[in-house]
Amino acid sequence: MRRLRADELPAGTVDLAKALIGCVLVRNAPEGGSAGRIVETEAYVIGDPASHAYRGKSRRNASMFLAAHRAYVYKIYGTSFCMNVTSERANEGAAVLVRALEPLAGLDLIERRRRTTRAIDLCRGPGRLCQALAIDAALDGVDLLRGRELWLAAASADPRPLGTSRRIGITKASRRRLRFFERGNPFVSGPKKMSW
Q: N or C: which end of the chain has fewer CB within 10 A?
């Protein structure tokens, strides 16, 4: 897989959220490599009341204020991690949540981490994909274009048509159409009616 270059990715949170569809997220862990094709994202733009950055920089969200293409990893509900790609200039506070992957490599390892062989349940949803690729707080702030442990690779195939909808699981600014996904891909999370 070929590592992505910064000049191949657009500036701006919404454009990046769209451009990441089809790109590959690669994880090199001590126990082996794994990877998945990004099929669903959500944009959390500057000034967004649903964003962790809305109230300013804190110890928890500091990585969200890094320059573009860094990992912002945080824990939700005290149990699951979520991974974002920072998307603006340093200190601006915006990111793209990676919501779902189509597994591509390291399937045995992914299945072992997820404790299931049911393909549809391996990386569908932000918590599941982090568990599947062993993404945790140790990877918060990693440079996704230059890092060794977690990085972004160029698209492995042309994506299907892009769909858009409101974001999932939020209450503030919930009607904004800032969720992007590959239409008809079975690995997209959320209700089926929101995958077309």
A: C
148: containing domain? 6-183
Condensed to tens digits (0 to 9), the pLDDT of residues 64-85 reads 999 999 999 999 887 899 999 9
- The Cα 14–Cα 170 span in angstroms is 18
Task: Give per-residue pLDDT as tens, 140-157.
Answer: 999 999 999 999 999 877
Residue 99 neighbours by CB distance under 10 Å: 29
CATH number of the domain within which 14 lies: 3.10.300.10
pLDDT higher than 90, residue 192: no
Does residue 1 form part of some domain?
A: no
27 bridge partner residues: 34, 150
Number of domains, the chain: 1
Beta strands per DSSP E along 45-178: 71-76, 80-86, 95-105, 150-153, 162-165
